[in-house]
Amino acid sequence: MNTAYRSRVACVHGRPRQQFVAHTKAELVKWAQVIKRSGARID
Question: Residue 17 pLDDT > 60, yes or no?
């Protein structure tokens, strides 16, 4: 990737990429637990 492109995609919603990834992973864990507890299933 070129430097100009990287500089544009480095921040997502005002956060550095690493913070965005960490937040997304934490949200996946949190919501997976909620779904498991609820007993929701895909038909």
Answer: yes
